[in-house]
Amino acid sequence: MRVAFFPGCTAQADQIGYEASVRAVMPRLGVELAEMEGAACCGYPPYSSVSEAAWFYSSARDMAIAEAMGLPLFTLCNGCHLSFTETKHALEKDAALKAKINAKLASEGLHYEGKAELLHVFELLHDGVGKERIAAAVTKPLTGFKFGAHPGCHSIRPSKLGRPDDSENPRKLDDLINWTGAQAVEYPGKIDCCGSSLASASGKTVMEIAGEKLKTIKGLALDGLVTTCPFCFKVYDNRQRAIATTIGDRTLEVPVFYYTQLLGLAMGLRQEQLGIELNQSPVDPVLARIGGA
Amino acid sequence: MNAEVCDQCGKCPSACPVTARIEGFNPRQIIAKVDLGREDDFMDSGVIWTCTSCLKCRERCPEEINPYDVILELRREAIAEGRQHPASYDEAEKAVTETGVVSQPQPARTRSRDRRDRAALGLPPAQKPKDQTKFTQAIKELKEEKA
């Protein structure tokens, strides 16, 4: 399977450990990542408040690049996937807007028709690669480990636009965790928000919202939290110490992994290949138990 | 904005992660005020910028209202009217227009406080527009056409 690879701004600029883990894992599962030359921002939804036309342009332009490559557009970020989905719907409904965007795309020899399929990590790994192939690639099953899945808002809502998983009972990330040999455990608040978009208006509220989920995971004595969204990861992992300080709980120690890091470990890859040295949460005890990583 | 069909059922604030934590942010009340034409009650209070975009209100609304879209519309109005808003919105817009991306690649920190950049992890150069001038020009023209 060949896909046009779109890491998105946050993964490629800031969450490079995630991108490294995806690049390490995918080819070993039979997924070829084709580079998208000249791709730009997905449109970045918050920015649509400032300029909706610019959002649609940047978003449609990336889809046009994938379309020219004749490949599905594979995104790492929940936000990018929703941004592309919303643009696709908007341009489908508004032929004049589509024509206007295409007039601009023509200067770069691009054209948007809406033909490129969009692929989220859940869709590529769960629905595409599938259980059999993942299970066959797992050489060091994570037996005995229990993790909580955090799908993240934009991978499951709004269901009316068609999202990668169910809005009220998402199970794909849980399945993916189970296929590594570990056990995904249901927990209260699984479909809740990480709070990250509030960072510009109220950093303290982000910490409170995210702290609640980390406390739940800790309270259930799980081995960690697993996600595929770089925005959510930035909060739960990169900001975990700040969260502990803000909510006044110094014992809050929750290992956080990108799913592709966890899968890579189960496939016998070394942690340097998976960018795990960049995780800021206390992952070392988990790594020591997996051993040889 | 469809606010007039709101039944005031309260599903949106009960799903909202912000209502419980930030005084004055309540999607149901925002819809009620929009319906009454009383946006000015809150337009400068900062509340419209405190939505996390979790989309639970959009998911759970039994009518076709979509409080999230109403908030986005209010944000667009606020910016168009020159009202105060978080600087990060303008910064993101400027960054995308001028460089094609929201943020430039920077070295990341390891747990042992070393630095790693993309090359150190064996990653190829980050994606960006091949012809930045054309990209910037297209966005500027689209904004002007709209105005």
Task: Write up what this structure looks like.
- The complex is a heterodimer of chains A (about 290) and B (about 150).
- Chain A is an alpha/beta fold and about 290 residues long.
- Chain A contains 13 helices and 8 strands.
- In chain A, the strands form 2 sheets. In chain A, strands 2-1-3-4 form a 4-stranded parallel beta sheet. Chain A has a 4-stranded parallel beta sheet with strand order 6-5-7-8, sandwiched between helices.
- With about 150 residues, chain B is mainly alpha-helical.
- Chain B is extended.
Quickly list its features:
heterodimer; A: 293 residues; alpha/beta; four-stranded parallel β-sheet; 8 strands; 10% strand; globular; B: 147 residues; mainly alpha; two-stranded antiparallel ribbon; 6 helices; 2 strands; 41% helix
Q: Helices and strands in order, then pairings?
A:
The complex is a heterodimer of chains A (293) and B (147).
Chain A: E1 2-6, H1 9-13, H2 16-25, E2 32-35, H3 52-69, E3 73-75, H4 78-93, H5 95-105, E4 118-119, H6 121-137, E5 146-150, H7 153-156, H8 172-178, E6 183-184, H9 203-219, E7 224-227, H10 230-238, H11 240-247, E8 256-258, H12 259-266, H13 284-290
Parallel strand pairs in A: 1-2, 1-3, 3-4, 5-6, 5-7, 7-8
Helix pairs in contact in A: 2-12, 3-4, 4-5, 6-8, 9-11
Chain B: H1 11-15, H2 27-35, H3 56-60, H4 67-80, H5 87-99, E1 108-109, E2 115-116, H6 132-146
Antiparallel strand pairs in B: 1-2
Helix pairs in contact in B: 2-4, 5-6
